[in-house]
Amino acid sequence: MLLYDHLVANKEVIIVPAPSSPLNQGPVLPDFECDSPSSAELDHHVAALLSTQLDLARTFCAESPFAAVLHQRLLVLQRIFHAVSTKYHDKDKSANLAIVLHLAYMAYALFATRTEDTSPFNSPVLCNEVLHTASEVVRNLPPLSLANESQITALGAQSLQEVTRFLRHAALPASGADSEGQFLASELLLELALQRGSLIYLLEWIDMALCASCGKRSDTSKTSAKITSSVFLKAMSKMRSTAGGDALDGKPWYNVVPDEDGKILLYRAAMCLMEELVNLACDYTRSCLGSERRESQSTSTCGSTVAEKCDVYVCGSNSSHQVAEESQEKILVPRLARAFTQVQQVEAGQYCSFIIHTNGTLSACGKGSYGRLGLGDSNNQPQPKRVVIDGTVKKVSSSKGSDGHTLALTDDGKVFSWGDGNYWLIVLFF
Question: Does the keyword Repeat apply (predicted)?
Fold first, then answer.
């Protein structure tokens, strides 16, 4: 390995000759020609021979080419992780890189280091232990820890892609893995798909589950592909709560009934996940079309206002309290904005937000420089505050790329403007 050779050349790794082993001497046996040994002595000597053979086998395995290559790869990965953690001190980034490198080690240990005569699935206990450990680590990460790919290095992204490819192969019956290994591979692949937070990875898992259910199994048990019920339900509960829905709380869901071993059919899990994705898409579509439906149901007179209120969900930057949250940290998942009440329409501006209420009044919050909030000063406003406008506000439009200016249209056709006035502007309200 080239990287390992560099570590040796730079004296970061020092090769120490293996100590001489006294195994050639073997256990000390009595002279059977003199006295006949008792049964207890025979048992003692047999145990000594077995212990010596076990030590010899362990020494041989530790000095085999496979173990040597595996040890070299582990040293290289440890060196890479040390360099990355030293350079990047952000806790979240370090956690993401740690899990990516841990999974990369799993892939190298079980997949990349196999030789022509050695397959990783010939040691199912080792494979299953590593898969189980990786699943526990991913399951305990905060939601969407791997969603922001810009915070993952090129090496980490490539390792994650290779691990995903390996897990998909391991979950299929044709991989040669035992049933437990296939269960663990499918579960880890699902956890990674949820952590990456993209629809494409969930659809890829569904495709894998259907392929695994239809494929022919290599073992003689002929057991259909399954997944642990508790793991699947916890994953779905996490996805639903992250999307803003109610958690499952251990209740029956989509008629998922586990068998006596606590597992469900993999194709049934795929259908349940697909149904949940359809429901989330329908909810999102209804939220997007809600304002259009309310507008179409209202009368054509300008004096009419929408009486029905709607909930507002916010996400993104809150550096200037533009989403009226107490903490100024980034909001990665849409969150219900409790400070926005009696809302008819919202408009996001440059570091600010505007709310048209059901009674036709207008409120603003966020950054106040250049008078962009229309509150008579340039102070920041952490909570929505009413903008004084003569008339009932019908629509509002705020700039996104300049220093901040806003226009508001009232029901009697008047246009009010405020904010930065250094540029000419033409706006058409439809």
Answer: yes
| Paired strand residues for 385 | 364
- Angle subtended at Cα 327 by Cα 322 and Cα 329, rounded to the nearest 5 degrees: 80
- What is the pLDDT, as a whole number, of residue 370? 85
Give the three-class secondary structure for 228: strand
List phi, psi (to 5°) of 76.
Answer: -65, -45
pTM for the complete prediction?
0.48
Rg (CA), the chain: 32
User: Residue 274: CB partners within 8 Å, gap ≥ 6?
Assistant: 206
Interaxial angle between packed helices 65-87 and 2-9, expressed in degrees from 0 to 180 and rounded to the nearest 10: 70
Q: Whose CA is closest to 201, among 216, 188, 214?
A: 188
β pairing state of 405-410 and 393-398:
antiparallel
Provide the 10 A C-beta neighbour count for residue 245: 14
Contact between 306 and 294 (Cβ < 8 Å): yes
| Residue range 163-218, pLDDT digits in tens | 888 888 888 888 877 888 888 889 989 998 988 888 899 999 999 999 998 866 55
Q: Which residue type occupies 361?
A: T
30 three-state secondary structure: coil
Span of 204-218, 287-301, 324-338, 343-357 with lowest mean pLDDT: 287-301
Tokens (6 digits) for 280: 């989330």
For 393-415, how does the pLDDT look when each residue is reduced to its tens digit (9 = 90+)? 988 988 877 677 899 999 888 89
Report the candidate in 299, 404, 268 with the shortest Cα–Cα distance to residue 348.
Answer: 404
Q: Is the dihedral of CA 140, 144, 146, 152 positive or negative?
A: negative
Q: Alpha-carbon distance 192 to 1, whole Å?
A: 29
Q: Extract the tokens encoding 267.
A: 């194709």
Residue linked to tokens 């002279």: 31
Q: What angle do CA 83, 88, 89 make, to 5 degrees?
A: 115
Could you tell me the end-to-end alpha-carbon distance of the chain, in angstroms, rounded to an integer? Answer: 65
Strand-pair partners of 302: none
Strand pairing report for 331-336 and 263-265 = unpaired
